[in-house]
């Protein structure tokens, strides 16, 4: 499948399907990257032994000048140190303004490599090659960032890729925990925007084992479609794009509070979505009990409550530092109906009470 992602500032192609990586050379030529262009692949040490040789060989056979830099795998790698190390390697390889960075990996590689591209020589081009289910979300839309010990994704940029090449055959090696993590964002896309897709998920994806073949492909397509439609409306998050943060206000606070990598991003977001629903019920005075969302999530193996060790007051402080908060007032995405959300300002006292109730 090939489709165009459109934002206010840019249109770029997305290739999706088994074997999409083989289309890379022809895609590059269509993007005015002639053979001889320096390509700098950033990947991690789990993905590299699986797919780096294959991608490198495809590009080298088309006479591109290919370099690679390998970071450790895992959320902790989305750090300033690795960002700096990538920049150093890029300078040593002599990348220039016509060079292209290739982000081969999950959301960690995509966010880090994208931020390297956004800032190297004030910004060069890059291509997203997602290798996780989660990256159906992270590879589209141009948000790139690294973490700060004090807050998730605190240092970053908006920098759209030249293209997204999503070779779904790469997903076959994805461990179950990572499939689950990515599925959290699929669920998020359904909950914020698409009641019919939500109903389909409830009927068709009973367990994680159902997430393969055509059903997996459908989840990826729907997820990208919803993500792309939000980004088309609001590239720089002045409005509806904030809806994509459903579950992320608490989710990001948890990731940073527990130490990056303790929970996967999707696990943290799953708990965060359940908390957002819990708050929605109290804020709007209505109930989503009939949907039994916690049971549904638990059936996939998601955590459905706060880890015992975590202090709610510290979580609240982290939530106040979230990028959606203004002047220290937490703004959360709440569920109005399945498929419909809005951003709401919440008072600290209420939030702390609800965090305490939720943690019981
Ligand atoms: P990840 O990149 O760490 O990948 C998860 C794990 O799977 C890693 O250990 C990785 O080495 C391994 N892996 C990757 N591809 C594999 C494959 N094909 N086979 C086997 N193992 C493979 O994490 P992720 O879940 O892909 O992404 C999470 C990150 O994405 C978070 O940092 C999150 O903040 C970010 N994110 C960004 C956006 C955005 O809009 N920029 C959106 C959502 C999430
Ligand atoms: Zn996310």
Structural account:
- With 360 residues, the protein is α/β, with parallel strands linked by helices.
- It folds into 2 domains: 172 residues, Rossmann fold, CATH 3.40.50; 184 residues, Dehydroquinate synthase-like - alpha domain (Dehydroquinate synthase-like, alpha domain, Up-down Bundle).
- 45% of the residues lie in helices and 20% in strands.
- The chain is built from 13 helices and 11 strands.
- Strands 1-2-9-6-5-3-4 form a 7-stranded mixed sheet, with helices on both faces. It has a two-stranded antiparallel sheet with strand order 7-8. Strands 10-11 form a two-stranded antiparallel sheet.
- Helix 3 packs across helix 4, helix 6 packs antiparallel against helix 7 and helix 9 packs across helix 10.
- The radius of gyration is 20 Å and the shape is globular.
- The model has no long low-confidence stretch (mean pLDDT 97).
- The structure holds nicotinamide-adenine-dinucleotide and zinc ion.
The strand count comes to 11
Largest sheet: 7 strands, mixed
**Head-to-tail CA distance between termini:** 46 Å
The neighbouring-strand order within the major sheet is: 1-2-9-6-5-3-4
What integer value in Å does the Rg equal? 20 Å
Name of the CATH homologous superfamily of the largest domain? Dehydroquinate synthase-like - alpha domain
From the coordinates shown, what is the CATH architecture of the largest domain?
Up-down Bundle
Structural class: alpha/beta
What is the CATH class name of the largest domain? Mainly Alpha
Shape: globular
Q: Stretches where pLDDT falls below 50 for ≥5 residues? A: none
**Helix-strand string:** EEHEHEHEHEHEEEHHHHHHHEEH
Number of domains: 2
Which small molecules are bound?
nicotinamide-adenine-dinucleotide, zinc ion
């Amino acid at each position: 499948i090939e489709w165009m992602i459109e934002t206010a500032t840019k249109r770029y192609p997305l290739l999706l399907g088994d074997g999409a990586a083989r289309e890379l050379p022809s895609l590059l030529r269509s993007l005015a990257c002639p053979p001889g262009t320096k390509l700098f692949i950033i990947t991690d040490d789990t993905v590299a032994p699986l797919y780096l040789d294959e991608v490198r060989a495809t590009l080298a056979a088309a006479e591109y000048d290919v370099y690679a830099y390998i970071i450790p795998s895992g959320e902790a790698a989305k750090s300033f140190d690795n960002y700096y190390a990538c920049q150093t390697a890029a300078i040593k390889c002599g990348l220039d303004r016509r060079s292209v960075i290739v982000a081969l990996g999950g959301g960690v590689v995509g966010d880090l490599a994208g931020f390297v591209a956004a800032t190297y020589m004030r910004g060069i081009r890059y291509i997203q090659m997602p290798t996780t289910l989660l990256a159906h979300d992270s590879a589209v839309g141009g948000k790139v960032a690294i973490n700060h010990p004090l807050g998730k994704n605190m240092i970053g940029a908006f920098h759209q890729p030249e293209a997204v090449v999503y070779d779904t055959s790469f997903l076959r090696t994805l461990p179950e925990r990572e499939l689950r993590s990515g599925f959290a964002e699929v669920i998020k896309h359904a909950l914020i925007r698409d009641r019919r897709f939500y109903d389909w998920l409830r009927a068709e994806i009973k367990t994680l084992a159902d997430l393969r073949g055509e059903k997996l492909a459908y989840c990826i397509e729907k997820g990208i479609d919803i993500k792309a439609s939000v980004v088309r409306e609001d590239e720089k998050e002045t409005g509806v794009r904030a809806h994509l943060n459903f579950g992320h206000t608490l989710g990001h606070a948890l990731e940073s509070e527990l130490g990056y990598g303790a929970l996967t991003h999707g696990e943290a977001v799953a708990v965060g979505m359940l908390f957002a629903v819990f708050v929605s019920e109290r804020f709007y005075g209505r109930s989503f009990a009939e949907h039994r969302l916690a049971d549904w999530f638990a059936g996939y193996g998601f955590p459905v409550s706060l880890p015992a060790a975590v202090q709610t007051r510290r979580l609240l402080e982290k939530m106040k530092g979230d990028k959606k908060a203004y002047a220290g007032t937490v703004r959360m995405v709440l569920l109005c109906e399945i498929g419909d959300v809005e951003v709401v300002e919440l008072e600290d006292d209420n939030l702390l009470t609800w965090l305490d109730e939720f943690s019981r």
